[in-house]
Input
Amino acid sequence: MTLVQMQPRSASATPVHRTAVDAMGTGAPQVCDDMTVEVALSVMASARTGYLLVCDNDGLCTQLVTQAQLAAVRDSPAYTDRVQLRDILGDRGPFTSPVTSMAEAEHAMRCRLDALPVVDEQGSALGVLAPAG
Output
């Protein structure tokens, strides 16, 4: 998995310690947790993305939800068109800090994540780290 594109540099160049904020994408759609699953899937399709950042009523990022997660909920026998994102999401997180090293972020993603939200100290979403390509 490659999260960032590497640029060629001279042999005498000093290595740069990249952080999550250096590599994150900032265009991830943010939606409120009271949105229904069906509407969330529609937003994803319109935005041509595989995930959404879910925020609470205070605007704080609570989760990242993927198209696969929402499709599984929609295809379950218990699904109704009234199921909201807050009904299907668990605890907050996981998240990463903007100052997390790329090595740490890549490790977290290799172990368990398709994408990783980047949040500030207050919990507001800054962007998303996702595999390139």
In short: Strands lie at 30-32, 51-55, 61-66, 116-119, 125-129. The CA atoms of residues 12 and 60 lie 43 Å apart. Residues 1-15 have pLDDT under 50 and may be disordered.
